[in-house]
Amino acid sequence: MLISYLSVIFCYFVILTAASKLGGESNKPNHHRFHHRAVLDPKGFFHLSWIKDQEANEIEFTIQAKTKGWIGFGISPNGGMINSDIIIAWIDESGRTRFHDRFAKNETLPIIDKSQDWLLLSSKENETHTEIKFKRPFVTCDTEFDQPITNGVTRLLWAYGDTKPNDDNSVQIHEPKKRGTRSMRLLMDDPDDNVKLESDIEIWNVRSQNSRVPVKETTYFCSLLKYPFPEKRHVVKYDVYVEPGNEQFVHHLVLFRCQHPDPSILATFLNSKDHECIPGLNNMPPDLLHCRSFYLIWTVGGGSFSFPKDVGLPLGGGEDDNSVFYMLEVHYDNTYLVKNIVDNSGFQLYTTKTLRKYDADNYVIGSVEDYRLILPPRQPEVVVVGHCSSECYEDVII
């Protein structure tokens, strides 16, 4: 998989300025009470849902996989199997659920941990699928064999097999295409459905337009959009729309603001087809290189976001046409080279003319990874240093 060309720490900060059911009748996952979900495998056979309990300091998971064999899931320190904190579960021929907290000393069958900190809640299966529901504390007392669940990015491992093990020590190794790893934030904020929005809310749907995903492992598609309102507005909430059935292909979404010296040129791209867009690989129209100012980012596992009641993210309303053009980037992973994928994923922005007290903005730190960043071969360490003068922020941060 192509590593994303831009590695940043991205967060919202307030600028204080003046102005989840599996039953015999259905094989589809039911995420009714789970705030977050992700499809972990490229074929859409391994679904993960989760909800955190901040007061109890624990997280509850549900896995639904297209198998009547075993399911494996865990947390890795680095994306590999060694030293990973893992559960393996299945429902045996007698209907009894076999569920163990394990530790991977190496790349063989993980050993059963003496401290069982992953706790089974329920399980079920039908003719094609198995569901396992379980929970675990964010941090356990088992510092030797358990990995902590933190606010940062967690590297998840998943795997499954189609054969029910005969006993706890006879779990057959998975096939190459029935295992993998994903990085995501498990402890992101839950959506607040009780936030009261302004009465003049209008929604701007920022989506791909029937994008045809190429038959190759990874693709970055960009499309240009024009701000549809005449005045400055605040985005007070956004939802993410991933085309149903395409969950396993959509890796992340980024909405950029454009800052072109001649914005009229951007208008020529409004009705054109999607463009592949990886700077430095000569497959992106040069004029779209002016659309690289981050506005919104979504990655797998994320969901809706509502700003605090007195904060909004400014949208449009600048002194020139540079305030009206935005570019949506969608990263597709098509590991198994599936054909005929059509996608309309994107953002749903809740906008209001009633400006809130504070403007929000994006704070990006890090170093750009592109063709100018040269990593010499066979070096034990390469240090990349970025510097930003305080003068850049003195007008907006109090």
Strand content: 35-45%
Query: Which secondary-structure class do the elements indicate?
Result: mainly beta
Q: Enumerate how many helices there are, as a single number.
A: 0
Ends distance:
41 Å
Give unreliable regions as ranges. 1-31
- Major beta-sheet overview: 7 strands, mixed
Shape: globular
Q: Over the alpha carbons, how many angstroms does the gyration radius reach?
A: 23 Å
Residue share in helices? under 10%
Secondary-structure element string:
EEEEEEEEEEEEEEEEEEEEEEEEE
Mean pLDDT: 83
Tell me the number of strands: 25
Can you characterise this structure?
This protein has no helices and 25 strands. The protein is globular. The protein has strands spanning 6-15, 36-39, 46-53, 58-65, 70-76, 85-91, 97-103, 111-112, 119-125, 130-137, 154-161, 179-184, 202-207, 211-213, 218-226, 233-241, 250-257, 275-276, 293-299, 305-306, 311-315, 325-333, 341-343, 346-352, 358-368. The two termini are 41 Å apart.
List key phrases describing it.
disordered N terminus; mainly beta; 6-stranded antiparallel beta sheet; 0% helix; 7-stranded mixed beta sheet; 398 residues
Q: Summed up, what is this model?
A:
By secondary structure, the protein is mostly beta strands.
Secondary-structure map:
Elements: E1 6-15, E2 36-39, E3 46-53, E4 58-65, E5 70-76, E6 85-91, E7 97-103, E8 111-112, E9 119-125, E10 130-137, E11 154-161, E12 179-184, E13 202-207, E14 211-213, E15 218-226, E16 233-241, E17 250-257, E18 275-276, E19 293-299, E20 305-306, E21 311-315, E22 325-333, E23 341-343, E24 346-352, E25 358-368
Parallel strand pairs: 21-25
Antiparallel strand pairs: 1-25, 2-3, 3-4, 4-10, 5-6, 5-11, 6-7, 7-8, 9-10, 11-12, 13-24, 14-23, 15-18, 15-22, 16-20, 16-21, 16-24, 17-19, 17-22
